[in-house]
UniProtKB/TrEMBL annotation:
The lineage of its organism: Bacteria, Pseudomonadati, Pseudomonadota, Gammaproteobacteria, Chromatiales. It comes from Thioalkalivibrio halophilus. It comes from the Bacteria. This is Glucose-inhibited division protein B.
């Protein structure tokens, strides 16, 4: 009986976590994308809530952070506090992607949606 309840809890738990992600994003759907997609089609994702993974890197002068993949597709991250203690680590982030031809690609991290996405994986 106990094993039966546990087996059926998996889909319910996944649904609950999905609900948390949607609530954290204000009910918006979040598109899982690669850094390559954000790099090659940045204008198409401008203003969208996205879920992306990459390795955190930083530069000191001026201090800023970004995530990148092996071909060095990069997206700037804000706020700094979202990744400051994760330099060199692979992370999964959820946030609003922005693209401007002058200033480049950036992700405004949504802490609640990021926590929910990481809890579901």
């Amino acid at each position: 009986m106990q094993a039966e309840r546990i087996r059926h809890a998996g889909p319910a738990l996944a649904g609950a976590l999905l609900g948390l992600v949607l609530m954290a994003c204000g009910g918006e759907t979040t598109a899982p994308v690669t850094l390559d997609q954000l790099s090659s089609s940045a204008a198409e994702f401008d203003g969208e809530m996205v879920e992306v993974t990459g390795r955190v890197q930083s530069f000191d002068d001026p201090r800023h952070y970004w995530i990148e993949d092996h071909p060095r597709n990069r997206v700037a991250i804000s706020p700094d506090a979202a990744v400051a203690d994760r330099v060199g680590e692979e992370v999964r982030l959820v946030g609003r992607f922005s693209y401007d031809p002058e200033s480049g690609r950036s992700l405004e991290v949504n802490a609640e949606a990021t926590a929910a996405a990481n809890a579901s994986h």
